[in-house]
Each structure stands twice: as C-alpha cells, then as structure tokens.
Write a structure and sequence with these properties.
single chain; 23% strand; 5-stranded antiparallel β-sheet; oxidoreductase; 465 residues; 3 domains; 12 helices; FAD; redox-active center; alpha/beta; FAD/NAD(P)-binding domain; Enolase-like, domain 1; binds flavin-adenine dinucleotide; binds nicotinamide-adenine-dinucleotide; NAD
C-alpha cells in the first residue's frame, strides 16, 4: 500500500506496553491505531517486572525454608519443581496478555491493532509492517527498550540468554554465569541461587549495583561475594561452548564456567529502529527520543514515553509519563501556550532491586548530595538495632537517611534488607509532599515493634548527626 492510500487515524500508539494504558474511556469513539511488533502488553507484564517478581517470591519461599533452622525450626527443601514454578508464573501472565490483545483486536470499537514492526515513512505517517501505511493526527511513541548483547557473545555462536527467555528455560541449570552487575544480574542471581543454582557474576565495575549509594553497593557486594562467585573489575574477552555448557574467558585470561549464560548488560531504547528522522523526531546521544516536560517530542503532534525516551527504565515512571501523555493528548499541546498542559514530575523517583536482600532507594546518594554542595547529615541504622530485626535474626539490613542539615529536608533514603521497597514508600511520600525529617519522625506514631522502626530510628539518628 502506498502513502497516498494511507488510512487516517486520530491517534496512533507505537508499543502496547505503557502505551496501551493511555486508552481509557476518554478515548472511546476515537479512531485509534495500536502498533505492536511483539507480544501484546510489552515488557513489564510479559518478560519484566511481573514475572520476575513472581519468581522472586518463589525464591524467597525456598530461602526461608533453607534458613529456618536458625529459628529452631528444622526444615529443608525437598525439591525445586522448576517447571511448576514456570507454569505458575506464565500460566497466569500469558492469558492476561492474550486477553488484553483480544480486547484491543475485537472488543474496543474504533481501535485497530496492527501486529508488525512499525516505522515512520513521513511526518506522522507510519508503515505498520503489515502491508498497510497509516497517518495520524497525533502519535505516541511508546516503543520501549531491548536487551544489549556484547559483540563477544553475539558473535560467539554460543547459546546465551537474556531476561527475555531465561525465565522459560526448559530445565533449571546446575550453574549460571551472569555477565553484568546491575539490576537484572542482581535479581536473577537472587532468584536462581535460592533455587539451588550456583551463581557466577562477571562485572566490569569494582562493585555490584555501583549506581547506588556507596554504603548500599558495598554492603550488597560483600553479601554477594560471600554466597556467589563474583568477578569484579573484569571484562569479557571471549565466550566458548563446552561439553557442559559455556566457558567465559575474561580479560586477565581466567575462565568462568557454567551450564548456562545470562547476559544482563543494560538496555537500548528502541527509537533507533523507528526511522524517526522521517517524522522529525530527534534522538539524543544515548539514542533516547528527546522529550520536553510535557512528553512532547521535537515533532508536532508526537509524544513519547517510557523506556524509549526516559533514562529511568522503570515501569512506574513509564506509567506516570503515560498519564501525562494521556492528559496532554486531550489538550491542544502544540497551540503555542502550555498553560493547560500537564508536566512530568521526576523529582522523587524511587526504585527497588528485588534481589537478596531487597534494596530500595529514593533521592540523592550521599556522594551526589555532597557533590551538589549540600551540608548533609547522615545516619545509617541497621535492622539488627531494632526489635523486629532481632526477631528476624537479621545481620544484613540497613537504612541510610541523608538530610539537609539546616532544613531537615530529606535528600535521600537508601535501604537494603527485607521489605526494603515497602519500608521506603513512606519516605517517598514525605519527600514528595515536603514533610521534613523531624515531622516525619516525631509527628506520627510508629507501630511498635514493627520493622518500620528502622526508618524511624534512621531519621532520628540523622536528626542528631
Ligand atoms: C527483567 C526486567 C525486570 C524489570 N523489573 C522491573 C521492576 O521490578 N520494576 C520496574 O519499575 N521496572 C522494571 N523493569 C523495567 C520495566 O519493565 C520497563 O521500564 C517498562 O516495562 C517500560 O515500559 P514501556 O511501555 O516504555 O516499554 P515496553 O513495555 O517495552 O513496551 C514497548 C512495546 O513496543 C513494542 N515495539 C518496539 N518497537 C516497535 C516497533 N517499531 N513497532 C511496533 N512495536 C514496537 C515492543 O514490542 C513492546 O511491546 C524491568 C525490566 C526488565 C527487562
Ligand atoms: N526492579 C527493577 O526496577 C528493575 C529490574 C530489572 C531491570 N530494571 C530496569 O532494566 C534496566 C536494565 O537492567 P540491566 O541490569 O540490564 O542494566 P543496568 O544498567 O542495571 O546494569 C548493567 C550492568 O552491565 C554492565 N555492563 C554494561 N556493558 C557491559 C559489557 N559490555 N560487559 C560487561 N558488563 C557490562 C554495567 O556495568 C552494569 O553493571 C535497568 O536500568 C532498570 O532500570 C529494573
């Protein structure tokens, strides 16, 4: 079909992850195209946040049993039924994706789903990859990101996995070599080790999760080194196939062997595969679609959101940006005035790494706070120093609070330990709504002897520091 014969839509959305969530009832009756090249629903539901956390929970159950004896409860893991774990996760997720696709394909009047690789061929003109070309008044680029694979692995001919397929392995491997020291490496190391797999990690940094506050990164690295075979400050030289799986050759000539290989070295935004130049959308030096605070790209009528344009690569950020785009799609976003437009708020973006132990953070690291010139007051409180931590026999967890000394404003909070993401959320709330540390610590009751007392004590310690 030629561009001249293109079918016209009021709205076209490239990507059915967070992009699909835009279509609430305000869009009923509008003529909408959704373009999706892969599994409907995108990364989070199919291969990201949700399945990984379902595996994380199964891993935690196994870990609890393995550690039960220190509480005077003798128990052991009889067997890991890997295929049942996989079936539990995907038996729940796959139907959700299939139903969401069916809903858009056949139960949403006015919406057309194009299942193909979309590319721009002109201003707001898209080749849908299905033999049809469409035009649209407004376009949303919500095309996400993809896993990076180092050339040494890609060209090796050796079987390897990424987060896209590691959760569907036919069998649990005896050992797993993980290349990378970030989020995905940490989460899958936690999952597979709890299920009995020997873990080796190869990371080029001197610490794991090195983007985190130094105290947290150090604590995690120390704990990881005690239970996994961790190779820090090493790069990959080559990858070889062996009789039992794979051998990874490092830059110092040493080798790390395992039965399976997981590559977890970051993700690339998919804007480079959309021929965005044809529609006037700019990419930055990191390949992200350039957007302003209203999620508008450099081309009239085109918004972008989520991993394709955001440095955060987090689902709650993509969701927030999708809500901003939804609101701005319904306004006249290129009229010249921005008075009516909704702004994205990236001030206090929290994140959690669901590894062992869990990690969560919000705001500045101590290093960044000092580098920004703040006069900081810092306190680290351990789980072992609160009553619930005693109950848990916890020797790993800590909560670090960074305050601006004069105002008592919370600049950053960093937690490693059980339920870190749950413990962090009230601090996110305090930062978002301008609650200072003194009011947060002493202006409310803290349930005794709940685990959040570690946050209360970290706040009080920072106030005294
Ligand atoms: C293993 C893993 C675990 C994660 N865990 C968490 C977590 O616990 N918490 C968290 O906050 N975040 C997590 N994330 C990150 C989170 O999944 C992403 O930030 C989020 O899903 C991005 O949403 P999105 O809508 O931008 O992109 P996606 O959900 O990836 O959607 C983009 C869609 O666009 C499609 N597409 C791309 N290019 C084209 C094209 N040219 N034509 C047609 N379709 C196209 C893709 O197929 C995809 O379906 C995790 C990610 C991974 C990989
Ligand atoms: N719980 C969560 O919110 C969650 C979970 C998983 C993934 N994610 C998102 O997905 C994104 C991707 O995760 P990720 O772990 O792949 O990326 P990451 O950016 O967290 O970590 C990448 C790691 O790979 C290393 N690396 C990069 N290139 C390398 C190379 N050529 N050889 C060896 N090591 C190399 C980096 O030094 C880093 O340690 C994250 O940025 C995160 O935002 C979030």
């Amino acid at each position: 079909m030629s561009v001249a014969e293109a079918e016209h839509f009021e709205l076209a959305i490239i990507g059915s992850g967070s992009g699909n969530t835009i279509l609430t009832k305000q869009f009923a009756g509008k003529k909408v195209a959704i373009l999706e090249q892969g599994t409907f629903g995108g990364t989070c539901i199919n291969v990201g946040c949700i399945p990984t956390k379902m595996f994380v929970y199964a891993a935690e159950v196994a870990r609890t049993v393995r550690h039960a004896s220190k509480f005077g409860v003798d128990a052991h893991v009889d067997k890991i039924r890997w295929s049942d774990i996989v079936d539990r996760v995907f038996g729940r997720i796959d139907p959700i994706s299939a139903d969401a696709e069916d809903f858009r394909r056949s139960r949403t009047p006015g919406t057309t789903l194009f299942s193909g690789h979309a590319e721009f061929v002109g201003p707001r003109t898209i080749d849908t990859g299905t033999g049809r070309v469409i035009t649209a008044d407004q376009v949303v680029i919500a095309a996400g990101s993809r896993a990076n694979v180092p050339a040494e692995v890609a060209s090796s001919g050796v079987e390897f996995h990424t987060s896209d397929d590691i959760m569907r392995l036919p069998e649990l491997p005896e050992s797993l070599v993980i290349i990378g020291g970030g989020y995905i490496a940490a989460e899958f190391a936690g999952i597979f080790s709890a299920l009995g797999v020997s873990i080796s990690i190869v990371a080029r940094g001197e610490k794991l999760l090195r983007h985190l506050d130094q105290d947290i990164s150090e604590q995690f690295t120390t704990l990881a080194q005690a239970k996994w075979d961790v190779h820090l400050g090493r790069t990959l030289a080559a990858v070889h196939k062996t009789e039992s799986g794979v051998s990874v050759e490092l830059d110092d000539g040493s080798r790390v062997d395992g039965s399976a290989l997981l590559v977890a070295v970051g993700r690339t935004p998919n804007g480079d595969r959309l021929n965005v130049a044809a529609t006037g959308v700019e990419l930055d030096n990191d390949g992200r679609v350039v957007v302003d605070e209203f999620q508008r790209t450099t081309a009239d009528g085109i918004f972008a959101l989520g991993d394709v344009s955001s440095p955060y690569l987090l689902k709650h950020v993509a969701n927030h940006e999708a809500r901003v785009v939804r609101d701005n799609l319904l306004r006249n976003a290129w009229s010249g005035s921005t008075d009516e437009l909704v702004r994205t708020d990236h001030r206090f973006v929290p994140a959690a790494v669901f590894t062992d132990p869990q990690i969560a953070d919000v705001g500045l690291t101590e290093e960044d706070a000092r580098a920004a010139g703040h006069d900081v007051a810092v306190h680290v409180h351990t789980y072992a120093d609160v009553a619930y931590g005693w109950a848990m026999e916890d020797e790993e967890g800590l909560c670090k609070i960074i305050l601006e000394r004069g105002t008592k404003r919370i600049l950053g909070a960093h937690i490693i330990g059980a339920q870190a993401s749950t413990l962090l959320q009230p601090i996110v709330q305090a930062m978002q709504f301008g609650l200072d540390a003194r009011t947060m610590a002493r202006g409310q009751y803290w349930i005794h002897p709940g685990l959040p007392e570690v946050v209360e004590n970290a706040l009080l310690g920072a106030l005294r520091a």
